[in-house]
Every structure is written in C-alpha cells, then in structure tokens.
Amino acid sequence: MFKKVLAVTALLFASVTPVHAEDLSYINRTISFEDSIVVIDSPVLYSISGGAGTPCDGGWSAKCDPSVGISLENFMPLCDSADGKDIRLDCLDSVEAEVDGRKIIGVPVTNQVSYWERYGFEAKPEFGIAKSTPFQIYKFAGLKHANGDLFQVKVLKSNLIKPGVIDPRRYTFLIAPTYQEKQGFDCSFLKTPGGLCWKTGSFESNTRFKLNLRTSKNLNGWFTGRVTDPSINFSTAPDGRNAISLTGLSQSIPAISRNYFYTNEVQRAEWTEVSKNFSSQSWDVTTSEGKRYSMGTAYSADAIYAYEDIVSRVESFNNADTLKNIWRIESTSYGLVEKSECLTSNITGLVSSNSMTYEKQIPTWDASNSSLVYRMASPHNAIGKEFVGRYDLLISLEVGKCLWSLKSLTPSAEISVTGANGEKKVITATSKIVDGFYKFTAAGFTFSSNKISVKMLSDGSNPIKSSQSVVTPSPAPSVTPTPIVTQSPAPVAVKKITITCVKGKVQKKVTAVKPKCPTGYKKK
Q1: What are phi and psi of 479, to 5 degrees?
Q2: 191-199 mean pLDDT
Q3: What pLDDT does residue 338 have?
C-alpha cells in the first residue's frame, strides 16, 4: 500500500538574514495530488538479517544470502537472454504496440540501459533469482512522442526470501515515453549513455500495448492498473512455462499541483482555507526560533479523504491542472478479507480506473448488497473541460461464481455509479466473459465523488455473453458498447434539466435528466 503522504519537505533558507524584519517573500506552501509511483532505476538486494534492510554492496555475501533472508528488486531478463532461457526464472518475452491500427513488435535498444554495478549480483535460479538485470529501452516503428521515439519498459519483480520461503511480494509493469536531458546531478554511476539520466513523459494519445511474459509459477492475487480496456490471457509457452499476456490502452489521469506564496494575498487566503484541517501545514508554523519556513505535501492516489476534504471547501480543486497519460499494471497485497474463502492460487482479478484518487486499490465486498464496491474521487474538470470517468473490472470466473454463489451458467449483471449525494449517474455499462474472466465496464460518468457497484445475479434474465479477446485497432475510451442491465439507463441523446432546491437560506442547483432535490431540500 502506498503511503497517503509521500513526502513533506521543509526548505529552510538560513542564508536569508533580515536586518529589521523577517523577509517573508520566499515563504510558500506546495501541494499536489497525482498518480506517482516510484519504480527503481537499477536492481538492488537488501539484507534483512536482524531487520536491517541494508543494501548489499558487492553482491552475495554471508550477510546477503537467501539462506539468511533478503529482499530483492530486479527487472525480468529478456526471454532470449542466457538467464531468460532458464525455465526456473521469469522473463520478458516481447512487447507489442498498436500504431495506426497495425500491430508493431517492439525492438529492444542495446547500450541504452541503466545499471549500477556496485549493487550487481549473480543469478541464483534455485531461488527464482535472475542475474541483476536493467530495465529495457524499446523502439516501436512509427510510434513517437514529444521527446523522441524511445520507451522505457520496466517489468519489475520484488521478492522477499526467508529461509525456506520465497514470497514474490509485488510485480510492477510500466511502459512510458522516455528521453535524456541534462539535470542537476550526474547519472554516470548508472552507466547511462553520456552519463545523462533517463526521464519519463506522458503519451500524447491513448496507446494500446501488449506485454508478453513467461513465469515459472502462477501469478496470483489482485492486480491494479492505469489502463483502459484491460485483458489478461493465459497459455503455455513452448518451454513449458506459463505464458501471460497483459493488454490495455494507456489512459489520462488528472493531477493537481499548486504553489502558494505568503506575500500574495489571494494565494495566502486560499492556502489558509486549504490547510484548515491540516494545522501542521498552516502559515503559523514556525521553527524553534520563531521563524516561518516553506513546506510542501505530495499526496498519492489513495489520498481520497484528504482530497474530498479540501475540494469540499476550495472550489479550485475541482479543476485538475494537467492530465498525465500513462500505462501501468501492478500487483497488490490487498485481498478480499470479507470473502477470503473465494480466493484462489491464480489471479483474482484486475481493477483499473482513471480517477485521480480512490479509497482502496481494489473493490471491497458489500455484504448487505452482495456487491463489489469501489469509491473514487476526481476533479469535475481537467484543464477547464469536463472530465469523464472510466472503470474496468476483471474477476476470474472461479472467484466470481464463489462471490455471488452463481448457479446459472449465464448470469446477468448490474452495474451502477452513485454520486456523493446519492444520485444515480447516467453511464454506459457492459459486461461479458473474456478469456476466463467476467469483464465489467462503466464509462461516461462525471465526478467528483463516486461509488461504483458491481453485482451479478443467477436469474440469467439478461445473460452475460462470452467472447474471445482479439487484437483490433485501439478504440477511444468513449466508444459506446452494448448496454446491459444497470441501475441507470445507457446514455442517449436526452436533455438535462436544472432545478433549484431550497433548505432554509441555502440553495442548491441540481442538473440531471430527472432532477430530484437532496433529502431535506424542497424544489423552489
């Protein structure tokens, strides 16, 4: 689980020494909400002997050995490399992209990778450990971005190995536009070309990728993503290992990044409201010498409560500053605690949304309604335009049948999106069976706070249809699929109506196809 507050930095400018009065011109507050996951740039071992968690300098040793316990961060080798051919190890088989409706096989670019020799290590296949391997740089013919035509492909495996136990804690699969530029520090220790550090950027449009892996053991548990229209396909590789393909479109995620200066009256007033419930961030915080100082807070995607608190009081937080188009899938340690008896040794499911924040990485089980519920919150607008939500959920057939006690081979599905005030959102919803998964999609809804509920029934009144995944040109996320049974109708060209609701001296405007006043309010 990510920490809700990734960083709090205090910048003390000791060189500023006012003669007569404290100089406040440099005092500021920063705040950000964005999907920011840090993926390492080079493999590393950690000794966990005695709980130290110390990086292993120089490879394997008496203190850094699986027999006494280690944690490990390493990228999967290419399957056609020496390590990748060892069937005891996991490997990256290939990466595909869709360019102008054509399938393009990515080509690894040699001599372009990052690698810190100091923390290198040799393979120990008996523990499922490949030789320390750098992430890959790929090219896809015809695919470019604002800073060139190179793309990072990070297929990261994080292990915890204790005596007799090998625990693959986390997998992270990231594809991103990449480029090099001069920065304030030197990356020559990573053996990068010219000693320049690699930076990642944003895709210019939604781009479909397919990541093909081979694994010695089954992947299991929940996966989360920042992809649209995800799919997972299992087969057997020619060498007998598991062949797993992960497919999806990159998607745009809203982000907020603000900077407030004390000497700007408007900015000072807004920050006072922003920090109303965060006293440690107020303008009045001082050092032991009574001096004000600058500070900042960066929130990650699971900071839904902090965001909802701020946006309820500060309207500007209902508009995102940027959209970052990314492609990422990762495993999570979360599980369905309430229905643990339904979990299997294979992948439970995959959940993905384009919301800026969410309550948890995976849905929770609502026993009162026998449904999987997912809470999310985002700005209503992004860069001045209304932001439209998307939610994708894959549930393995085995897990789904257990969750909903399904007896029918052709169950029906109900999908609903409910706003913060309890109003049902107009959505486009689909469900089908693809490659051994129930696949649910809800799209076309607006923000800010929403609750998505997915439920299946055994009556078969509107049965879910089976289909097989195929490679087709990348569709836009807003394409209208075939509707299914939902709590709200599929969107059609209808006129929305705005009414005014009154409660004492308070007035609220409600806009919807069939608007209703919130509880306690009367229509004016």
Answers
A1: -60, 135
A2: 85
A3: 66
pLDDT at residue 108 is higher than 60: yes
pLDDT, one tens digit per residue, over 153-189 is: 999 999 888 876 777 678 999 999 999 887 767 788 8
Task: Report yes or no: 426 and 452 within 8 Å, Cβ to Cβ.
Answer: no
Q: Residue 116: which pLDDT band, with cuts at 50, 70 and 90? A: confident
Q: Rounded distance, CA 355 to CA 226, Å? A: 9
Phi, psi of 102, deg, nearest 5? -110, 145
Q: What angle do CA 243, 246, 248 make, to 5 degrees?
A: 160
Residue 44 to residue 400: CA distance in whole angstroms:
38
DSSP state of 148: B
Helix, coil or strand: residue 21: coil
Give yes or no for a contact between 59 and 43, defined as CB atoms under 8 angstroms apart: no
pTM beyond 0.85: no
Alpha-carbon 487 to chain mean position:
27
* 137 touches 112 (CB < 8 A): yes
Distance between CA atoms of residues 110 and 125, nearest Å: 24
CB atoms within 10 A of CB 504: 7
Q: What is the mean pLDDT of the chain?
A: 83
Is residue 137 classed exposed, middle or buried when 0-12, 13-18 and 19+ CB atoms within 10 A define those classes?
Answer: buried
Dist. CA 207–CA 142, nearest whole Å: 12
Q: Are 445 and 451 in contact (CB under 8 A)?
A: no
Confidence of residue 513 (pLDDT cuts 50, 70, 90): very low
Angle at 505 between CA 500 and CA 506, to 5 degrees: 50
Integer-rounded Cα radius of gyration of the chain = 25
Q: Could you tell me if 43 and 74 are in contact, meaning their C-beta atoms sit under 8 angstroms apart?
A: yes
H-helix or E-strand containing 401?
Answer: helix 397-403
Q: Exposed, middle or buried: residue 519 (CB in 10 Å: 0-12, 13-18, 19+)?
A: exposed
pLDDT digits (tens, 9 = 90+) for 455-488: 988 765 555 655 444 333 333 333 333 333 333 3
